[in-house]
From TrEMBL:
UniProt gene name: CARS2
Subcellular location: Mitochondrion
Cofactor(s) recorded in Swiss-Prot or TrEMBL: Zn(2+)
Organism: Electrophorus electricus (Electric eel)
Coiled coil residues, start to end: none
The protein's enzyme class: ligase
Protein name, per record: Probable cysteine--tRNA ligase, mitochondrial
């Protein structure tokens, strides 16, 4: 949604006399010169001192895999750019956030690294203001509404929330102070119109750490002639009529886009950050500018050590990324009407997080069938362990060996730039070998059984999928949820039946319930001794259903029931 150009569009738009040099593209295309350009880029990266995680990750700062070194042992500071909240989130967003959620889960649960993650919510921006004007609703209300929707969508996709969401509008004084310090440090200037710009020339060739832009740019954001250099970008924008504004030393206005992230990330993590993430469209200008601002503010050589960028989600056959601005999107809410969160996660897991991904019915089918194979395997293995499925003798040693090899391959794949397709290949191969061993027989008398090895395989696979956020038992739960209407009717019938039995028991002369209603309450009466066991059975049923979350209340001759929030709470001893 941003007024930014992608790297490809940048490269395409270069004019022959332009001195801009997009090294990331050149590294791939021009072998002879690329070595120099790339090694220059690499030279600029300062290998962080600290704790080696044993993981290698592709770092956009060097355009190659680097060992992931953290400043503090077992802790990764992680900042991510969140959404601009003016509309429903779409599958492009889902893809980026689910992919990074998977990476964070791997770091935390497989490699024991505590990920300290902060995400910004861009709640003031041109698009939000425009939407507010169109809808005649305050832009602040628009932002809150869609922020809530975003959070609900993330929850529905089982994306673990960051430890803090930070709103731009709640950090304006910090942003103003941040800009003031950049000006004091000699890296920004004000204009007569109340705008503040970052002075890219003041940092020389350091501008372009991510995409290696050098020289006078004619591709920067427009600045109405007030900019010293076309690459300079706005830190503070003077407000226009009808726009929300905040007071500042430069007059009424609001922050530029890039400065929000630099300020908020620095306010939490200070002058050093381990990992910064976002979609690849954010690399330039957004992350490039974040780097320039932070290093100018902190007067440091390297603020963020690793920049991780996820590839775009496209609709199959389209070269354009799915995007709100292009109106070629499927909302997360619509998607979840047809598919589950588990299926989307599988869809993400089957490609590397950095690659572009095509969304289509075929790719979703692939995800669904992988999930179905895993589920079927879980069920047949459980049946075998429980003795419901009788099979030919199993080559135990072979399976133990396959399990050990899978564990090694999965870990090695994930330590190599979070290669989830490789890890999933290893898992599915283990499923295949295990399935081959489960050859059913009709009569199993005397046949040796090997439940322990299947138990080990089952628990490894289900734990591993759980680490990635795929709950293989979830299918049962959603199935149970689908059948909740049926269960409701069953409980209704059960309670009605119990009620009739109870009324019969308490009726002195076998009178009808209608007669009883007219008379005194049956609860005050004593059952005839021969009917006492029936009353005890009714009481027992009420008591037994309570810990299961069904609370029956006897009210005269009728009984009502409800599902309790706390299934195990049986404090209520309503008669
Ligand atoms: N199609 C996509 N594929 C992958 N990631 C995406 C896609 N679209 C957006 N993202 C990522 O989602 C995050 C939030 O995006 P943001 O709300 O800032 O703008 P946007 O969705 O790109 O806007 P628009 O859809 O209007 O182009 C960013 O990290 C962005 O890179
Ligand atoms: Zn950002």
């Amino acid at each position: 949604m941003r007024p930014c150009l992608t790297l490809v569009r940048y490269a395409n738009s270069l004019r022959p006399n332009c001195r801009l040099n997009v090294s990331s593209e050149l590294c791939r295309t021009r072998k002879a010169t690329s070595r120099t350009v790339c090694s220059e880029t690499r030279k600029r990266w300062i290998k962080p001192a600290g704790f080696d995680t044993g993981i290698k990750t592709f770092n956009s700062l060097t355009k190659q895999k680097e060992p992931l070194l953290l400043a503090r042992e077992g802790i990764a500071t992680w900042y991510s750019c969140g959404p601009t909240v003016y509309d429903d989130s779409h599958l492009g967003h889902a893809c980026s956030y689910v992919r990074f959620d998977i990476l964070q889960r791997i770091l935390t649960r497989l490699f024991g690294i505590n990920v300290t993650h902060v995400m910004v919510i861009t709640d003031i921006d041109d698009k939000i203001i425009k939407r507010g004007l169109e809808e005649n609703i305050s832009p602040f209300v628009i932002a809150r509404m869609y922020e809530e929707e975003f959070k609900k969508d993330m929850l529905a996709l089982k994306v673990l929330p960051p430890f803090a969401y930070m709103r731009v509008t709640e950090n304006i004084p910090g942003i103003v102070a941040f800009i003031e310090r950049i000006i004091r440090n000699g890296h920004a200037y004000t204009t007569g119109q109340g705008d503040v710009y970052f002075d890219t020339q003041s940092i020389g060739s350091r501008y372009g750490k991510l995409v290696n832009l050098s020289g006078a740019g004619e591709l920067g954001e427009p600045g109405g002639g007030a900019k010293k250099d076309l690459r300079d970008f706005v830190l503070w924008k003077a407000s226009k009529p009808l726009e929300p504004y905040w007071e500042s030393p430069w007059g009424r206005g609001r922050p530029g886009w890039h400065i929000e992230c630099s300020t908020i990330a620095s306010s939490v993590f200070g002058s050093q950050l381990d990992i910064h993430s976002g979609g690849i469209d954010l690399a330039f200008p957004h992350h490039e500018n974040e780097i320039a601002q932070c290093e100018a503010y902190h007067k440091c050589d390297q603020w963020g050590n690793y920049f991780l960028h996820s590839g775009h989600l496209h609709l199959k056959g389209s070269t354009e990324k799915m995007s709100k601005s292009l109106r070629n999107y499927i909302t997360i809410k619509d998607f979840l009407k047809s598919y589950t969160a588990n299926e989307f996660r599988l869809f993400c897991l089957l490609t590397k997080y950095r690659s572009a991904i095509d969304y289509s019915a075929a790719s979703m089918n692939e995800a669904q069938s992988t999930l179905a194979s895993l589920s079927a395997f879980m069920h047949s293995t459980q049946a075998y362990i429980q003795g419901h499925l009788q099979c030919q003798p199993v080559q135990e040693a072979f399976l133990w060996e396959r399990l050990a090899a899978t564990r090694t391959n999965v870990r090695a794949g994930l330590a190599d730039d979070f290669d989830t397709p490789k890890a999933m290949d290893a898992i599915m191969s283990l499923v295949h070998h295990s399935n081959c061993q489960l050859q059913p027989v009709s009569k199993a008398d005397g046949i040796s059984r090997s439940p322990a090895v299947f138990g080990a395989v089952l628990s490894y696979i289900s734990n591993f999928m759980d680490v990635l956020g795929v709950d293989l038992l979830d299918r049962k739960e959603s199935h149970a949820a689908d059948s909740s209407g049926v269960l409701h009717n069953v409980v209704e019938q059960l309670v009605r039946f119990r009620s009739e039995v109870r009324n019969f028991t308490l009726s002195v002369e076998d009178r009808s319930p209608q007669d009883l209603q007219a008379s005194a309450s049956p609860q005050r009466q004593k059952p005839r001794p021969d009917r006492a066991p029936l009353l005890q059975a009714c009481d027992a049923l009420r008591k037994d259903l309570m810990p299961l979350g069904v609370q029956i209340r006897d009210r005269g001759t009728t009984s009502t029931w409800e599902i309790t929030q706390q299934p195990r709470d049986n404090r209520d001893k309503d008669s």
